[in-house]
Amino acid sequence: MFPSLGGATANGGPGAAAAEPAPAKDGEGLINLCDMLDKPMCYARNENTSYPLGNLFIGDSRLGMQSDADEQLIIHLTFQEFVKVKSIKFAEWNMGSNPDMNPVNVHIHINRNNLGFEDIEDVDPAQTITLTAADLQDVSDAIDLYYVKFQRVKSLTFFIEDNAGADITAIGGLQIMGRTVATTNMNDFKKQG
């Protein structure tokens, strides 16, 4: 027998609750939030047009994304609705063919629009992560974020400050794991009387 939801017993006996929807729970059913991007609102600064932002989400690290003029990149992602972000996973470009192009210091900003290189260093990030070559491997785990800070996210801005030593930065892919924000649909409630 499967456990029942919402505290009601399966047979409707003692402890049975009224026919109310079970509350949405956090921490269950993590999904790749990149499927929920509002793509026309996403952009990158200093991207190589031959290796653009959209390549991060197609699942082929040989394409990926590269910076253009130098190693710094700004990646701005807007979601279709508010989300809770648990972890992120950057993938190595072209299966590690040039490890010096790997991003190292990444500053993550929440719900900040139109950040450019002229002002992004003046704004405190929600979190800064330092990536190692091992973090970018396919077999490595995603990097957990300060979950309490990422509870109501409409957009993320990644500022890739530097890399492992090359003139340009390359990223093979990006996953953002989390869930949608639990919302109440008032149509689910029946009038009590």
TrEMBL record:
Q: Which Gene3D superfamilies match?
A: PITH domain
Kindly state one GO CC term assigned in the UniProt record: cytoplasm
Q: Which residues cross the membrane?
A: none
Start and end residues of each PITH domain: 22-193
Q: Which InterPro entries match?
A: Galactose-bd-like_sf, PITH_dom, PITH_dom_sf
Please list the coiled coil stretches: none
Pfam families in UniProt:
PITH
Sorted keywords for this record are: Disulfide bond
Q: Does the keyword Disulfide bond apply?
A: yes
Annotated region described as Disordered, given as residue ranges? 1-23
Q: By what name is this protein known?
A: PITH domain-containing protein
* Species name: Skeletonema marinoi
